[in-house]
């Protein structure tokens, strides 16, 4: 089974994944601290502290609670799984994320084994990276209580990040498997071939510099974990809020040319790298906006830097346009509920239309990165929104966003033609694009 494109599954990682409806029987999180006496000073904030270290089975985590409790509910989320986790504290059970104990306790310990398989839209809570492990920190959060995750590396090992491991992916493992590159760190064991690692490093270095220049923003220095995965997806990638990116290749396909080919890896790495800038922080932003933004930026930057030819780039756009046309039919993008590959296909198409409109309408002074500069600037005050996209684009883009019905695709083809691009047939969606390289 192949993943249709990079990070098909819920990337970028967000620590605030949508929670399902509350369980019918209310569970108690950490029991509240005793009510303060009238003359008491302001009580200290209740914080759960979780210490994590490597262990033969994967990792161990000790939870220390601010007050005795019989029940502790781990953060409800459909984006994580914990079914390989076990309690090692006598009398303490862990079932469906609920820790229970007959006696009030302030401390309990769990074993975290690596997730046995990848599951669509779910982050592995723990996966091996060489001789180390990668933890998805948000899986350790306690419902309703501030939780701090502290990594405890063994001698000769490192923790990345050193603080706030609850924000996203975190690496715990041998320092010798960490390589400092230009503007990033890479972590991999000897299960990753030197040729693949060299391609990932080169593409990451080049694309980070490129995005920084185009977006006029410094960005964050990421750590890229490269690992083999149990499958069933041939590859998967997730960027996360901790600036740690995980790229995983199914071991059985590691030596197959299509998954590790430089052109493929170029786009895979560049997609994840763009999420360091465009990961949304506003709830309700549709996935096709940030996923399409990352995928389109990956294609454009790969063409601009020579990792893809112009023809290869246009062929990829045409494929996305064709699939989006199939996915949307006569529906508008904002009303269609897309899933899986549809999110990427229509997200890329939206970005291409917006880019064509921006360049055509500004005699080449604006382009896709100018749109993203506007979005990111608007987002500085708490996250960009769909309204910010509308403000940064024009009526041609609105034809894809909002128009519906049988005239929409022909109308869109006519509108992009006015900006010098061509969709030769809206149904078959073969396009001819002007040069993909950005305007500056
Ligand atoms: Zn993505």
From TrEMBL:
Superkingdom, taxonomy of origin: Bacteria
Name the UniProt record assigns to this protein: Peptidase M61 catalytic domain-containing protein
